[in-house]
Write a structure and sequence with these properties.
Strand content: 5-15%
Radius of gyration: 33 Å
Number of strands: 13
Mean pLDDT: 79
Structural class: alpha/beta
CATH architecture of the largest domain: 3-Layer(aba) Sandwich
Largest sheet: 7 strands, parallel
Number of helices: 19
Number of domains: 3
CATH topology of the largest domain: Rossmann fold
Low-confidence stretches: 1-39, 41-67, 371-382
Distance between the termini: 41 Å
Shape: elongated
CATH superfamily of the largest domain: NAD(P)-binding Rossmann-like Domain
CATH class of the largest domain: Alpha Beta
C-alpha cells in the first residue's frame, strides 16, 4: 500500500516538472517563431502529453486492479445464507476466496474451503494465515434452549477469537455484517445488543473494520423472511402481537452482497459504519400483506398487544420450520424499528436497489429452483416425505375406524349426547391435524401425535376386558368391534411414530 502511495507521489512530481518544461518551451518558441505557429506547436505538445498521461493512468489502474484481485479473501460462514451468496459472487469476479466452514467440503471454482471451529483459536489462526481481507458473517442463534440462552456469550467469544486470529495472521481488513436498529432510546433486544457488541469487539483491535448494519434481508434462506413467509403461506387468519407495527426497510440479499463487495473495492469505506436498507419503508404487517398480495390471497390480521415475544416465538416454532432457538432472538429484535437514518453509503456505492416485491419474487424463485436452499432439511434415515404420507394416511384411517362405532358397534351408549359430542370434537381435531400436517407444520405433527396417543389409549381401554375380564369405558364390545379396536391401535401407533419423527426432524437450515 505504501509503495503505491510513493509511486503516485513520484508520478505527480514528474508531471509537474513536465508542465514547467512545456512552459519554458513555449517561451523559447515564441522568441524564435511567429505567435500563431508557436501556438500550433505548443498545442501538439500538450495533446501528446495528455495522451501519454491517460495511457499511463490506465496502465496504472489495470495494475492496481490486478493487485486487488490477487488478494486472498476469507468468507466466514460461507455455507450460510449471506456467506454462500457472497462467496459465489466474489469467485465469479475472479477473487481468490477462502471459505471458512465447520465441515469438510470440496473446493470449486475460485473457492478453497478450510475447516476450522471459531471457538478453537489455534485451528482458526492456522487457516487465516495469508488472508488479506476477512468477512465476518457469523452468529450463534442455533441449537436448543440452553444454547439460545447463551448465544450472546458465545457470539462474544467468537468475535474475540476471530479478532485475535486475524491479528496474528496479519489480516489487513475486516468487513462485518451486523443488524440495523433505530436508536429510539429504548432498551435493545439481546440479539441486537449482541450484534452491536460484536462490531465493537472487532473494531477494538488494530485492524480497520467496515461494519454494515442491515435491516431485514429478503432471501430464500433468511431467518426473518422465512418466518413471515411461512406464517402468510400457512395461515389465512393471524392473531399478531404489537411488534407487527414496527417499521422495517427490507433489502434484497443480492443488494446486501453488492454492498459487501463494494466495501471491499472502495477503500474509503475502511473503518466506517454504514446503514443499509431497501427503497421501501413499511411495517411488518404491511410486509406480510405485500407477500399475501404477491401470492394473490387474502390475509386477515388481528392485533393483540398482550402477546409476549416468548409466546410468539413458540407459535412460530410450531407453524414454521424456524426453530424457537432462532425465532426468539429474531422476534425480540422485531419490536424495534429498523430503518436507515444515515444513507452516506449511497454516495460511495451508488446502486439501484430492488423493491420489496422484486426481492420477494427473486427469493421465491430461488427457493423453488435450488434444492440446496430448501428451508426444510429432510433427514436421510426417516425420510421426511415418507413420514409425511404415513401421518396423513394414518389420520384418515383413524377417522374411518371411528365411523365403525355407528355400523359395527351395537352398544346404545355410542348414540348418547356426550359420546356424540366427544366424537364430533375428535373429528374436528383430525381435520385440523390433516390441514396442519399438509402444510408441514410442527403444530400439525404435535396435534397428530397427541391425538393418536389419546385414541390408542381409548381403544386399548375399550378392549380392557380381553385381558382383565372387565370393561372400563362401557359394556364389552362385540367381537368385530374388538378386532376393530386392535386394528385401530396399530394405526394409531403408526401415526405416533411417524409424527414423532416429523416433529423432531424438521429443522430450519
Amino acid at each position: 500500500m505504501l509503495a503505491n502511495h510513493a509511486e503516485s507521489d513520484v508520478h505527480g512530481i514528474v508531471s509537474l516538472l513536465k508542465m514547467w518544461s512545456f512552459g519554458f518551451r513555449y517561451v523559447r518558441l515564441s522568441m524564435l517563431f511567429p505567435q500563431s505557429c508557436t501556438r500550433r506547436l505548443y498545442t501538439v505538445c500538450v495533446l501528446e502529453y495528455v495522451h501519454n498521461m491517460v495511457t499511463s493512468t490506465t496502465q496504472q489502474g489495470e495494475r492496481h486492479l490486478e493487485y486487488t484481485k490477487n488478494q486472498t479473501i476469507m468468507v466466514s460462514g460461507c455455507t450460510g445464507f449471506i456467506g454462500s451468496h457472497l462467496a459465489t459472487r466474489l469467485s465469479s469476479m475472479g477473487y481468490s476466496v477462502r471459505g471458512l466452514t465447520r465441515k469438510d467440503m470440496n473446493d470449486h471454482d475460485n473457492i478453497t474451503y478450510v475447516k476450522a471451529d471459531v471457538f478453537d483459536l489455534p485451528s482458526l489462526t492456522s487457516v487465516m494465515k495469508g488472508v488479506d481481507v476477512a468477512y465476518y458473517l457469523l452468529h450463534s442463534m442455533e441449537g436448543g434452549k440452553g444454547d439460545w440462552q447463551d448465544f450472546a456469550k458465545r457470539e462474544k467469544e467468537q468475535a474475540m477469537n476471530f479478532l485475535q486470529a486475524a491479528n496474528t495472521s496479519n489480516v489487513k481488513r475486516i468487513i462485518y455484517l451486523g443488524g440495523l436498529v433505530s436508536s429510539d432510546g429504548s432498551e435493545l433486544s439481546p440479539h441486537m445488543e449482541s450484534r452491536i457488541k460484536v462490531g465493537q469487539i472487532l473494531a477494538s483491535g488494530s485492524i480497520p473494520v467496515t461494519e454494515l448494519r442491515a435491516s431485514i434481508i429478503i432471501g430464500a434462506r433468511g431467518g426473518s423472511f422465512t418466518m413471515l413467509r411461512y406464517l402468510v403461506e400457512r395461515l389465512r387468519f393471524m392473531v399478531c402481537p404489537s411488534w407487527v407495527g414496527s417499521y422495517t426497510q427490507p433489502i434484497a440479499v443480492d443488494d446486501v452482497v453488492a454492498y459487501l463487495v463494494g466495501c471491499l473495492e472502495k477503500k474509503e469505506t475502511t473503518g466506517r459504519i454504514f446503514e443499509i436498507g431497501g427503497p421501501d419503508k413499511m411495517t411488518y404487517e404491511q410486509l406480510m400483506r405485500t407477500y399475501s398480495t404477491y401470492l394473490d390471497r387474502t390475509l386477515f390480521i388481528l392485533n393483540v398487544p398482550f402477546l409476549t415475544t416468548r409466546l410468539s416465538s413458540l407459535w412460530v416454532d410450531l407453524i414454521t420450520p424456524v426453530k424457537a432457538a432462532l425465532a426468539r432472538p429474531l422476534i425480540d429484535s422485531l419490536v424495534h424499528d429498523s430503518v436507515v437514518t444515515d444513507s452516506s453509503i449511497d454516495k460511495i456505492i451508488p446502486m439501484k436497489l430492488k423493491t420489496v416485491t422484486e426481492s420477494i419474487d427473486i427469493a421465491i424463485k430461488e427457493a423453488d429452483s435450488n434444492s440446496d436452499s430448501a428451508v426444510i432439511r429432510r433427514n436421510a434415515k426417516t425420510r421426511f416425505g415418507l413420514n409425511q404420507k404415513i401421518v396423513l394416511f394414518s389420520l384418515i384411517a383413524l377417522g374411518i375406524c371411528g365411523t365403525s362405532y355407528y355400523w359395527l358397534d351395537d352398544r346404545p351408549v355410542v348414540y348418547e349426547p356426550l359420546w356424540l359430542s366427544v366424537s364430533s370434537v375428535w373429528y374436528v381435531i383430525i381435520a385440523f391435524a390433516v390441514i396442519m400436517v399438509r402444510n408441514e407444520t410442527r403444530l400439525g405433527y404435535m396435534v397428530a401425535g397427541v391425538l393418536a396417543w389419546v385414541t390408542l389409549s381409548f381403544w386399548l381401554f375399550d378392549n380392557f376386558y380381553v385381558v382383565f375380564d372387565a370393561s372400563i369405558i362401557s359394556t364389552e364390545p362385540n367381537f368385530m368391534m374388538t378386532i376393530r379396536n386392535f386394528v385401530g391401535v396399530v394405526v394409531a401407533a403408526t401415526a405416533i411414530i411417524a409424527s414423532h419423527n416429523l416433529f423432531h426432524k424438521s429443522v430450519y437450515t
